[in-house]
Amino acid sequence: MDFLIIGGGPAGLSAASTLRRVSPESSVTILSNEPHRPYAKMVLPYLLAGVVEEEDLFLRVSEGVDLVLGEEAARIRPGERFVETASGRRWPYDRLLIAPGGVPDRPEIEGCRLPFAFTIRNLPDIHGIRPFISTRTNRAVIAGAGPVGMETGDALNRQGMRVTFVVTSNRLFSTMLDIPSAAFLEKKLSDKGIEIRKGEDIVKIEENGTVHFRSGDAMECDLVVFGKGVKPCVGFLADSGIAVKTGIVVNEMQQTNLPDIYAAGDAAETGDLVSGEQRVNALWPEAVEQGHVAALNMAGMQTAYHGSLARNILRVFDVSILVAGMGRADGPEVRVSEDADHYHKLVLEGGVLKGMICVGEGRNEGLYRELMKRRIDVSPYSSSILKGSFSYPRFQRHAMRL
Ligand SMILES: Cc1cc2nc3c(=O)[nH]c(=O)nc-3n(C[C@H](O)[C@H](O)[C@H](O)COP(=O)(O)OP(=O)(O)OC[C@H]3O[C@@H](n4cnc5c(N)ncnc54)[C@H](O)[C@@H]3O)c2cc1C
To answer: Are the folds of 106-226 and 326-401 the same?
Structure first.
């Protein structure tokens, strides 16, 4: 059997490793459009901050996997079972996994492609930013305050730059934080001298480094970073017949609508564990799990993926943030604990944890994810969860009784 994988990110690598294990007699080829061997994109902000070395980024590729760098899949011919790359080469397959990840959103405004305007997705983005750090005004303007925007702002601040966040909505990280938690975070950032412009957009960037805002204000800076989210990388599938909504549509086995073609990772939309809707939860652990499940099915071992959970865990500007599920919601049942150092909120439905927000202190995030995924009735423990004293042994004892 010849397995072909498009994309050498965590979804593609996890699939390749599973395929080598369960089908050692088969060939496994990964096509990557990047010139570098696979690396962890989530570590890029730490590289920018100078707290890890570039060598620490690179990921292991399982033995026996044929990794082909610099080959971009340009089209898929499902009828003839081959992928054609931009170089014109054809790559036949028996079973194909599409795992090309996402592309960052870059608003098409005047000046958005000037040499000092960046998105953060790939290693060359970090190489590109470095020469612009603290060159003239010592100011970085970050459009968007989601996880990537905030981690980038934190990294540039650690490098000594003054940071301005420009957010379209009325709060930081509006996709996951509610108004009180965003206000808590805003206060912490403001105390550190971080400027936040809410209800604002960048409308134009000039070559001399002047950034113009929708309100009419303007500001000088050394660099601009767009951290406004990612879109599934699906452009090359246009004439393939593969069903795409926001991302590639897959069933529980990570199978697309076409036989022998699977998809995983940031390019695929899967069932959300809390809302039940199909959506793209662009997260590393989900990409790994989806790649693994896709590979088992590609090898003929029927396996279901149980769904993804929207969540983010980060520490920026010395504040820990853990958000998961429908943490922004006002009900059905909400429990909040807050003081000057923390804001914790649980959203429950019939005792089951549907969402949470913890800002200010670190929490046992793996445990909460498990509680949500397993839809465990946590009502007897909600106070200790709020306080952060709910422990793993207690969870185990509880789980054993179920
Ligand atoms: C700065 C940053 C910070 C992040 N932080 C976190 C975090 O804290 N926690 C978390 O869970 N997630 C985080 N993420 C998200 C996480 O990195 C992604 O969810 C994960 O990398 C998705 O894996 P993937 O394999 O689907 O795609 P990717 O990792 O994007 O890999 C896809 C690969 O396919 C290649 N490719 C694309 N198109 C083609 C083509 N046509 N032909 C061949 N190759 C192609 C791409 O260049 C890329 O190398 C972060 C991401 C970034 C950028």
So the answer is: no
